[in-house]
Amino acid sequence: MTDHRAPLDPVSAAIVGSGLVAILRAPTAGGFSAVADVLVSAGITALEVTLTSKGAIDAIAGLRRQLPAGTVIGAGTVLTPDDARAAVDAGAAFLVSPVLDTLAGQSVPCYPGAYTPTEVYRAHLAGAPLVKLFPAGGLRPGYLKDLRGPLPDVRILPTGGIGLDDITDWLRAGAAAVGLGGPLIGDAATGGSLTALAARAKRALDAVAFARS
Fold this sequence. Notes:
The chain is an alpha/beta fold. The protein is built from nine helices and nine strands. It has one domain (10-211): TIM Barrel (Alpha-Beta Barrel), CATH 3.20.20.70.
């Protein structure tokens, strides 16, 4: 089927190409460096550092220096213009918000949160290359499939409450990519097993590959 949608910017295209965004959220960002190394070594190339994690801005700057050039690092839970500016200044390549209307005028791709068809369409009309469907855990992939019927040009990034076993269903329902937080990261950012994290990362990537095969 021919895709009539507008071309994506390089950052958004990289996220769609990877199929998933790993969301790093913890009380503090001290463990994000080790977690990011494991994720990138496993093959995950898009990371979102949530600003609710203490030290998140410094972590974004540190990960930009630490990780390979092909890794896309963004900021999540961006709620104010000051947050957005600080994240971009630290090197965030994209910004994600759980709500609409907080990301206007930024110099990097912005993915606002939406839940209803009206919100999704508003975000699309505002120029969002990807629209974060949030919280997706209370919905089913069939909801996304129904949304894409009347809104086929909107690229949607379901996030929030998506488990590893759900990845294939969401992608096959039409998700451009999925955002994975706790079910992927687990307790690895607070001293948990990095070996178990690597296994979960492989499982997530295998699910993306299966969905797109």
